[in-house]
Amino acid sequence: MGLLTDLRSSISRVTAKLFATPGQEPKRIGIYGPPNAGKTTLANRIARDWTGDAVGPESRVPHETRRARRKEDVEIKRNGNSVTIDIVDTPGVTTKVDYKEFLEHDIEEEDAVRRSREATEGVAEAMHWLREDVDGVIYVLDAAEDPFTQVNTMLIGIIESKDLPVLIFANKIDLEEASAQQIANAFPQHETVPLSALEGDNMDEVYDKIAEYFG
Ligand SMILES: Nc1nc2c(ncn2[C@@H]2O[C@H](COP(=O)(O)OP(=O)(O)O)[C@@H](O)[C@H]2O)c(=O)[nH]1
Ligand SMILES: [Mg+2]
C-alpha cells in the first residue's frame, strides 16, 4: 500500500471513530477451535442469516481456512437490542500440520506442501489475532470428539489470561455420537451452547448468547 493510501485510510479510520455513536463500535469476535470443528460453517451461517453472504468455503479437507477471514459489520438483532460484530473466521489451531494429511484428500504433493506451509502460517496468524485483535471469542468444538486436548486447554487458558469474553459452542449435535455435556464438563467455568451449524439447530439460543456476551 502506498503512503498516501495508508494515510488516507488512517484518516478515515480516525474520523469514523470520532463520529461513531458511543457503544456502536463493532466488536471483533474471533471464531477459534481445532480444525474441522465447523468454524467456517458457523461463520457462514451467521453471515448468511444476518447479511445474506458467506465468509468462505467449508471443507472436509482439514485446514481449508489457512488465513483469517473477516466479515465486517454483521448486525444481530435480539430482543429489541442490536449488536454489531465483525466475525473473524480463523484457521484451526493444532499442534501438528502435516502435508500428508492433504495427500489423503487427493491433493498433489507440491500443492500439499504449499497448503501445509500456509496452514502453519495461518495458525501463527490466528494466535497473533487472539493476542492483539479480538474483543471476544467463540470457541467451537466438535461434540463428537474428545474435548480434552492440549490445544483446547492451551487456547482456553490464553483466552482466560486475556480476560476475553468466551462462549463455547458444542457443534455437530446432529451426530448421534455427539455429547455437548462432555464439553460442558471439560470447561465448567464457561457457558457451553449446543448447536448444529450445518443443520441450523439451536441458532436462536446461539444468537441470544452472542448478544448477551458480546453486545
Ligand atoms: N454433521 C455435522 N457436520 C458439520 C457441522 N458443522 C460443520 N460440519 C462439517 O464438518 C466439516 C468441517 O467444517 P468446516 O466448517 O470447514 O470446519 P473448520 O475447519 O472448523 O472451519 C465439513 O465437512 C462440514 O460440513 C455440523 O453441525 N454437523
Ligand atoms: Mg475453516
Given the C-alpha coordinates, what overall shape results?
globular
Count up the domains: 1
As a whole number of angstroms, the C-alpha radius of gyration is 18 Å
- In terms of quaternary structure, what is this? single chain
* Element string (H = helix, E = strand): HEHEEHHEHEHEH
Percent range of helical residues: 40-55%
Uncertain segments: none
Strand content: 15-25%
Main sheet overview = 6 strands, mixed
Q: What small molecules does the structure contain? A: guanosine-5'-diphosphate, magnesium ion
Number of helices: 7
Summarize model confidence as the mean pLDDT.
Answer: 89
CATH third-tier fold name: Rossmann fold
What is the number of beta strands? 6
CATH architecture: 3-Layer(aba) Sandwich
Q: What would CATH call the homologous superfamily?
A: P-loop containing nucleotide triphosphate hydrolases
CATH top level assignment? Alpha Beta
What report would you give on this structure?
The protein has 215 residues and is of the alpha/beta class. It has one domain: Rossmann fold (3-Layer(aba) Sandwich). Helices cover 42% and strands 19% of the residues. The protein contains seven helices and six strands. The chain has helices at 3-19, 39-51, 99-103, 109-132, 150-161, 180-186, 203-214; strands spanning 27-32, 69-78, 81-89, 136-142, 166-171, 192-194. A six-stranded mixed beta sheet has the order 2-3-1-4-5-6, sandwiched between helices. The mean pLDDT is 89. The structure holds guanosine-5'-diphosphate and magnesium ion. Residues 39-40, 64-65 line the site of magnesium ion. Magnesium ion is lined by residues 39-40, 64-65.
